[in-house]
Design goal:
Layout: H1 2-9, H2 23-38, H3 46-55, H4 62-86, H5 92-104, H6 110-125, H7 137-153, H8 185-190, H9 195-204, E1 205-206, E2 211-212, H10 214-235
Antiparallel strand pairs: 1-2
Helix pairs in contact: 1-2, 2-3, 2-10, 4-5, 4-7, 4-9, 4-10, 5-6, 5-7, 6-7, 7-9, 9-10
């Protein structure tokens, strides 16, 4: 089935970049993209993204950890303009992304990065000192992606505290933790989760419909799977060119 998916979608063209991503990761990417395209809402569950992160390699592997970090940075960069268009005089998210880049290049300590990411989380919770009416939901999530990217660049597992999201926030779950494969990105984007969740909803949220636009979600996930991952894999070796 994976091979059939590979031919239906077409392989990722890595010939223009330095490193070939592993065959198992490429096959997984194509398989998951087919699943997203066939989903009527074009959702991409956190559990499936976890499969991507794990396919990079174990968390104890320095190279794999760096590739995951670059993926977070590239993802946060992708939506930074959404934040800066809404709040052109606020540069804190950009600084956090720059710190994440420096962390991955070994020019900023992991301890400092974790500390700055935590502070960034608090600052975003205060809407960077702005009134609620000034910060659109898309901009808030784009800013959130920046401090998450810094944490992930420092090696923090974005799903480490996923059990904190309880079913009390979803009455039909009867007081039990929401299964990992049922956690919607709208919830992960706002509270806990990976950079990709915040960035996807920042890109796709329609303020008129008060929900994510499925076509924009598909657009984002196609970019994330086909372009961002390939770029991150190459950044693993070519730090200074990223």
């Amino acid at each position: 089935m994976v091979l059939m998916t590979y031919f239906l979608i077409g392989s990722i063209d890595n010939r223009k970049v330095g490193m070939q991503i592993p065959e198992n990761l490429e096959s997984l990417i194509n398989f998951l993209l087919m699943n997203i395209q066939s989903d009527p809402h074009h959702n991409f569950s956190a559990q499936k993204r976890q499969e991507i992160y794990e396919a990079f390699g174990p968390r104890t592997d320095h190279q794999a950890a760096r590739a995951r970090g670059w993926l977070a940075v590239i993802t946060a960069r992708h939506v930074l303009s959404i934040f800066e268009q809404a709040l052109p005089d606020e540069n804190h998210p950009r600084k956090l992304i720059e710190m994440a880049e420096a962390t991955l290049r070994g020019k900023f300590s992991v301890e400092e990065a974790i500390r700055e990411a935590a502070e960034g989380h608090e600052i975003s919770g205060r809407l960077w000192g702005h009134e609620e009416t000034e910060v659109t939901w898309n901009a808030y999530l784009a800013g959130t992606a920046a401090h998450r990217a810094l944490a992930e660049a420092a090696g923090v597992d974005p799903f480490m505290r996923i059990s904190w999201i309880r079913a009390s926030d979803s009455p039909d779950q009867g007081g039990q933790p929401i299964p990992f494969d049922q956690l919607p990105d709208e919830k992960l984007a706002e509270w806990l989760g990976d950079t990709a969740a915040a960035a996807a909803v920042a890109h796709a949220y329609d303020s008129d419909q008060l929900k994510s636009d499925p076509q924009k979600l598909l657009e984002f996930w196609r970019w994330w799977l086909k372009d961002a991952i390939t770029a991150a894999w190459n950044c693993m070796e070519a730090n200074d060119d990223c």
